[in-house]
Design a protein that fits this description.
mainly beta; Neuraminidase; 4-stranded antiparallel beta sheet; 25 strands; 5-stranded antiparallel beta sheet; single chain
């Protein structure tokens, strides 16, 4: 809450002014790419994922309430069975609202979501076939308590939850936020002006090829780390994502993780200040991270030239996709960028700048890309899910 990496999507901006008239969700962008709205009425929709049965899961950070920082139960995760736009179930979670930066109110709650497995359907009997639906919450109890002088008492923020595919019931797997808040406090020298800090934002659950081993990785946008969650809920810090070298612009801000065709992790960064206030657009990066590495092993720079990247995935053809919160010009609307695995120097924008404040992206069972939009718009019910067919 005290720096830009904590309020990943809102720092120093009047989002309301930037997403005003003329930026409604489009129904199409021309012959090459079509964008179709599936449903709306969402509050700060962020993560989106599909399980092996084709069911879709959407995480909403919640309502951006006005007033002193506080906790509401307006965050939620919803499941939509394959082909349906009506929720099978909805589970409520904490949402932190704050007006810290004298702009529009912020909402921070459920963020990234990841799903695998074919046994996640309703009334699933017997073998769940490794079904895993995991969601990460923003912030941390200790960080929110420190920033609010103890007035905001979070019990779920910063936690990694596993959701039951049949009912939506949630089980906490790890208190990621407080662990990373403590880790950054112990590594205060990395960013003396910002640490301690934690804002878990992206999650990836995977199955090790050739085995049934489930592994979970979390991108922390405040701590600038990629961590693996152990079975007992403890963390192993895999990598620290480098910040800008020019002081005081310490804003790499890793927001998402995708597993590449080579089994390595690919991490995109927001680089909010560098893109919008200092250097201009095209300053976000994609880093290649060995999932078996341990900090201080350094990640490798894989691609450059993105703008405010805040979610990512790979498609079945090996293309890396990332949403850009803002287009590579000045301000919204945002876009969707494709990078072929075989040539990471080739960036192609496919949505024509017609995605207003995109949040999460996932490849659907039909091969189309599904994107949450108006993810950082504080107007209640302004969020939506759209289908993008390049």
């Amino acid at each position: 809450m005290k720096n830009q990496s904590r309020n990943v999507l809102f720092v120093g901006l009047s989002v309301t002014a930037m997403v005003g008239a003329g930026l409604a969700t489009p129904s199409g962008v021309g012959a090459a790419t079509t964008v179709t709205t599936l449903f709306g009425g969402l509050n700060a929709p962020r993560g989106i994922a599909f399980d092996g049965q084709g069911s879709m899961y959407v995480a909403e950070s919640g309502r951006a309430l006005v007033g002193d920082p506080g906790i509401s139960m307006t965050g939620r995760v919803s499941k939509y069975a394959s082909g349906s736009t009506a929720a099978s179930w909805r589970s409520s979670f904490e949402s932190l609202h704050t007006n810290e930066h004298s702009g529009p109110p912020d909402a921070l709650g459920p963020e990234g979501i990841s799903a695998i497995g074919r046994g996640c359907m309703n009334r699933s009997n017997g073998q769940r076939n490794g079904c895993q639906i995991q969601m990460i919450m923003s912030e941390s109890h200790d960080g929110v308590a420190a920033a609010s002088d103890g007035h905001a008492n979070a019990t779920q923020l910063g936690h990694l939850f596993r959701l039951d595919g049949a009912s939506g019931s949630a089980t906490s797997l790890s208190d990621v936020g407080d662990q990373m808040y403590a880790w950054t406090g112990a590594h205060h020298d990395l960013v003396p002006s910002d640490f301690p800090d934690s804002n878990p934002y992206g999650v990836l659950v995977t199955r090790t090829p050739g085995s049934d081993e489930i592994r979970t990785f979390v991108a922390d946008a405040g701590a600038n780390t990629i961590s693996e969650v152990n079975r007992d809920g403890s963390l192993r810090v895999v990598a620290y994502i480098p910040n800008e070298n020019q002081p005081p612009f310490r804003d790499a801000t890793p927001t998402c993780i995708a597993m590449g065709p080579d089994g390595q992790l690919y991490v995109a960064t927001l680089n909010f200040v560098a893109n919008l206030f200092v250097y201009g657009s095209g300053k976000s990066n994609v880093w290649r991270v060995d999932p078996d590495a341990t900090y201080p092993a350094a990640p490798a720079l894989w691609a450059t030239g993105l703008t405010t990247a805040n979610s990512c995935t790979f498609d079945n053809a090996g293309n890396f996709w990332a949403t850009e919160l803002f287009a590579p010009t000045s301000g919204p609307p945002g876009d969707l960028v494709r990078i072929p695995f075989s040539d990471p120097s080739q960036l192609t924008h496919v949505a024509g700048g017609h995605l207003p404040l995109p949040g999460g992206v996932a490849v659907g069972p039909d091969g189309a890309l599904y994107v949450t939009v108006n993810s950082a718009n504080p107007q209640e019910g302004s969020g939506a899910v759209v289908r993008v067919m390049p």
